[in-house]
Structures are given as C-alpha cells and as structure tokens.
Amino acid sequence: MNNCPLVEDLIPLYIEELVNEESNKFLSEHLHNCKSCKSYYNKLKEDYDDTKNVKGSEKNIEDTIKAVVRYQNKIKLTTIIVSIFAAVFLTLTNSGFLLTIPLLVIVPFLCRIFYKQSLQILIFSFSLSLIGALVLPIGWIMKNLSGINTSVSDIHLSKLSFAFNFAIYSLILSSLAIKAAIILTEKDNNDSLRNRLLPIILTSMIFLSGVFIYSRYVGNPICYLINYSKSDRYVSEKYQKSILQFIEIHFDSHEKAYVAEYFAKYGGESTYSTITFYPNGRVKDDYQTFLENQFIAKTETKINNTLIRALNKDILHVYIHEKNFEVNTLEISKSDEFSGASGKISYSHFVNNKEASKLVYTISIGDTSGTVSTEITKNEFIDKSITILQALKDENLVFNDMTIECYNKSLGLFSVKINTSTTAEDIKNTFTLNIDPKQ
After folding, report:
1. Where are the domains of the chain?
2. Which of 232, 253, 297, 417 has a CA positioned 20 to 30 A from the CA of residue 102?
C-alpha cells in the first residue's frame, strides 16, 4: 500500500510536532524508509526553520526599537528636567547678568520644539519653580521681598506666598513659550507665502509677549550691559579709585531703574551703598548722600559747640530736652544740591569746596512750641543773636543763611535772619515779630 500521499499531508503537522504519538511513530518509520518523502520533509523543514528565524529576528528588532524609544524618552525627560531646573535656579539665585536672560521663556520654547512634550514641560515648570522658591534661604527672601521685618512665622508665610506666585508666573511664561513652539512647528500643506509667514508672525508675537512679561520684573540683558557700563563710567569719573568696590547690578521693578550695589570705604570701614540709574537719565547716588550727611552732621556738631560756648560757658554737654538749655533745636537743610564739579568727590571735597556755604540753619532759643513760657525780651533776643553771629565769624564758619527764633508767650515769635555778611546793625534792622493770634 502506497502511504506517501498521506505522509506528505501529515509532514507539516509532524514538523510542528502537532501529531499524536502513534502517528509520530508511523511517520518516523516511513521517512526512514522512503527517500522521496524524506526529501520532501527536509525541504519543508528547511523552509519552516527559515520562517521561524525570521519571526524571531522581527521580534528582536521590535524589542530593540521599544528599548531605544524608552531610552530616548528617558533622555528627553532628563533633559527637560535639567534644563528647566537650570532656568529656575539661575532666575531665583539673582545671578547678575544671567538673571536678565529670559530663560523661563527660552528653555520651555526649545524643549517643546525638540521634544514635543508639552504636558511634562508645564508640570516641571510649575513644580520645580515652587520647590526652588521654597528651598531658598530665608535671608534671600528678606532681601528681595519688601516689608518683611516681623516674626519668623510671618517670614515663612511670605516665603510660601512668594514661592506660589513665582510658580504661577513660571507656568504662564512656559505656556506662552509652548504655544509659540506649537504654532511654529505646525505642518501646513498649503505652501502659499501667507500661510508660511503667519505661523512665524504669531510665534514671534507670543514669544516676545513672554519675554516682555519677564523683562518687566527682572530687566533685559541689553539694558543691563548699558547700565553696567554707565555705572562703571560714573564711578570712575566721580570718585577716587578703590573708594567704591562693585558688588552687582540689578533691576528694580518698582522704580523701573537699574541699581548698582557697592561696598564703600569711609573712615577705614566699609559701608553698603547704591547708585540708581533711571530711564530719564536721573542718577540717585546714595554714597554722595551719605558723604553729605556725614559732613552736615559734623558741621552741626561744630555749630552746636560754638553756640554752647557763646551763650553759656558753664554748659559742657548738650541736652536738647533740658529746660535750662538756651539752644533748644538746631536744624540744618540745603539751599541746593551739593556738587562735585571740582575734582572727584570724597569727604574732604565738601570741606575744600566750601559746600557749607549751601547749608541753611534754623536755631531755636528756648521753647518755640508755646507750651513753656520764655521771658526773654526783644533786646535780650537781639543781643543773643549778635553774640551768635560774632561767634560764628570768630570760628570762620561758613553758611548760606541762618534763622534765629525765640518764642515769647506774651508777645509772639521773635526771629531774625543772618548770613556771613550780616552786621550787628543789620540784626537790629531785620528783627521781626510774629504776633500770636491768641494774644
């Protein structure tokens, strides 16, 4: 009996080991004895093995591709986290020039273009901004937030509020940047010039809106460099070398001005000082104001001591609230701004250039509020005024003008104005009496 046709039909099942034990034994014996069926079996077996290897290779390729994709996703995620963290860190640490670069806009924009991960970018922009602001030292918060001079608990509450607001601010900037990136990378099959330019225009508008919002609070790199150069030139022209040591420059969002910070040397010690540059060209020089105040304070002390010696030789110390002290108050103001026209400014500048000639004094003898009775007469007041004028001239003290006042409860307020050219006769002629309406 010829079983070859039956065997040939069963060989595929035999190769895949799908026949029962009895059939398997029968097929094995037949293939052993029949060369034709054996040849047919070998051919099918070879084809089957090749197909199996191809399927195995395809599965390996698929697994490899999946592994590569997972690795690429990890790299993308890591890059996004590191990039946003760096942007947040440089912004929060107030890193001078780097602070003015709108990294909170640029970094999310580039991440969206290259990695297409909008949700992840938004999540990490908010979370890393919140965490970064929370881990800042309290000292930084006290320096950068106004009005924090209360308890530690209040500082922590202010810090928490700042962290949340900064995270929202970062999220808004990231959203604008991502929207700009999405518009820029959108595919349009229409190649008309209008459809090619529109995404670029919209992208530029949205991106620049984010940059503008950022710059409103921290300034911009161009203005930073301009004002840095301006501050360096200002200091080198106005002050002696090494008087002011530069610390940093930052943007004051409230004043809309750039503030240069310095360590200033005075009397062998260092003090903190700032010079502010406004958009309209005005300069606020706190160090010059400091020197002015030091000069005025020392001039006031000198005037005060001169008056003490002139009016009451027995008084060695000044007690402003002492009832028996004749000079009750000594107020000093300036007739106009001190200048540094001749030479570089230092404390000696004010003395050498006779800036004291711009000082205006008000001297009150006794009580001027009307609550304490002063029994001084007109002639006594004039005599005391002449004594003050002569004492100032004897000490060669320079001033712009001086008003001497004394309140007489029975009459009113005596007053006289003097300057360095005033004579005793002038005092008698310029005496005025402001009568109290209650009298």
Report:
1. 1-33, 67-217, 223-281, 289-435
2. 232
